[in-house]
Amino acid sequence: MITERCGWTLNHPIMTEYHDHEWGIPLHDDLAWFEFIVLDAFQAGLSWLTILKKRENFRQAFDNFDYEKIACYDDKKLAGLMQNEGIIRNRLKIAATMTNAKAFIGIREEFGSFNNYIWGFTNGEVIVNRFNSLKEIPARTELSDTISRDMKKRGFTFVGSTIVYAFLQAAGMVNDHLTTCFRHPDNQNQSNG
């Protein structure tokens, strides 16, 4: 039996692995949240495949996405990252990562964890959509608009509504697996995946 997946995996092994084992699974770990925020900001204007291919390079370059360390990066570190051919060498996105680490720590201080903050927008509930085609999936929603505004107010950059919606999908706050996909919650009790 053929396993049905969301069409965006492009039948590429890295995308398929990410789709099957990560995308849309509810996340509750602050370090992983910060990783998605960083990667989705770097993805702006690029393909997700490009980012996934460089993910390990990003992990090494940014101290395993340790927001405490990144918040202390200085101009010398920024200059070094600009020379790192393994990542996307965009000064604004690198600087945003540093800025966002500080804002992330601020949220943790206020809410106890970023996880508490972000899941508060849905009262801890996963939003399960039932889209039948990729064309139906929005690039942004009222929820991502609200979170984007709030994160910007708290000092984040590169967190426009489209970027926010992407990391809500990635981190499983919003489940946008297609109804035909074996990863959609309605299909989880079937033995086709």
Structure description:
The chain is mainly α and 193 residues long. The protein has one domain: Endonuclease III, domain 1. It contains 10 helices and 2 strands; from the N terminus they run ααααααααβααβ. It has helices at 13-21, 30-43, 48-53, 55-61, 67-70, 75-82, 91-111, 114-119, 142-153, 161-170; strands at residues 127-128, 174-175. The chain has a two-stranded parallel sheet. Helix 2 (30-43) packs antiparallel against helix 7 and helix 2 (30-43) crosses helix 10. The radius of gyration is 17 Å and the shape is globular. The model has no long low-confidence stretch (mean pLDDT 95).
Short description:
This protein is mainly α and 193 residues long. It is built from ten helices and two strands; from the N terminus they run ααααααααβααβ.
Features:
single chain; 193 residues; mainly alpha; Endonuclease III, domain 1; two-stranded parallel sheet; 10 helices
Report the end-to-end length measured between terminal Cα atoms: 9 Å
- The shape, in one word, is globular
Query: Can you write the helix and strand succession as a string?
Result: HHHHHHHHEHHE
The top level CATH class name: Mainly Alpha
At CATH level 2, the architecture is Orthogonal Bundle
Query: Could you say how many structural domains there are in total?
Result: 1
Which stretches are poorly predicted, pLDDT < 50 over at least 5 residues?
none
Please, what is the average pLDDT? 95
**CATH topology name:** Endonuclease III, domain 1
Beta-strand share of residues: under 5%
The rounded Rg comes to 17 Å
Strand order of the largest sheet: 1-2
The total count of helices amounts to 10
CATH homologous superfamily? Answer: Hypothetical protein, domain 2
Structural classification: mainly alpha
